[in-house]
Amino acid sequence: MTMLEIKGFGKSFTIHHLHKTIPAVSPIDLKVEAGEFVGIVGKSGSGKSTILKSIYRTYLPYTGEINYSSAHFGTIDLSKATERQMLYLRKNEIGYVSQFLNVMPRTSCRQLVQNALLEMGEPKESAKHQAEEALQHFEMDPALWDSYPKTFSGGEKLRLNIAMATVKKPKLLLLDEPTASLDHHSKIKVREMIEKLKRQGTTLVGIFHDIEFMEGLCDKVFDMKDGQLASSLEGVVNEG
Fold first, then answer.
1. What is the pLDDT of residues 179-217, one digit of tens each?
2. Which of 3, 62, 150, 219 is buried most deeply by CB count within 10 Å?
């Protein structure tokens, strides 16, 4: 079953005061099957994040389709979905992990992870228990659970961000440099969670600079060059 199919997707950005249009992604095609992990590598500025942000509908493409197999809506073109539809999908089906943390002020670490589950309709006690399990997995110091993330280090913020996204066990998970500021031990914890989600059926699309982290993890890996997806890389894909 195809979970995500991108057809003729292209994106450019217009700098209005300079009357200039900058191409970001040339028209590309990409198909992701249910339960697959597709990785995308490439230099900074090659268009990797643009693809992920367009799937999440932070950006709108100038051309093409992004067809997603939703449990609630059936096959839906994310580039044409309504804001109400996208809000539902972000809450219930599509997760996004960025290397940056953007959260509500005066909301504690524990509350942020718990709220991710409550907005899906999870009972309060179950949400509390699952949130604490997630924080323990990513080895967040219990002394920080009731603190505000504004005071956290970069690595702590990233681990919290990953906990918020993965605790929901999304149908589709988008990973934008999820190990960017993590030490080796924390990267292992992220990898363990990705492997667990994949076993449970989550489909993943991720962009990375860390090729070593991807070793044996992805089913397909593509190299982004000059706004286009190049052929799959050898030696980093999952042979199982």
1. 877 888 888 888 999 999 999 999 999 998 777 887 888
2. 3
Round to whole Å and give the CA distance between 188 and 175.
Answer: 15
What is the torsional sign of CA 170, 136, 215, 231?
positive
| Site of tokens 């249009």 | 21
In sequence order, the 6+-apart residues with CB closer than 8 A to the CB of 234 are: none
d(CA 106, CA 104): 7
Residue with tokens 């292209």: 10
d(CA 92, CA 61): 23
Amino acid at 70: S
Domains of the chain with CATH codes: 37-63+89-232 (3.40.50.300)
* Helix, strand, or coil (residue 183): coil
DSSP assigned state of 100: S
Question: If you write DSSP's letter for every residue of 76-91 in order, what string do you get?
Answer: EETTT--HHHHHHHHH
In single-letter form, the type of residue at position 217 comes to L
Per the confidence metrics, is the pTM higher than 0.85?
Answer: yes
User: 194 and 204 in contact (C-beta within 8 Å)?
Assistant: yes
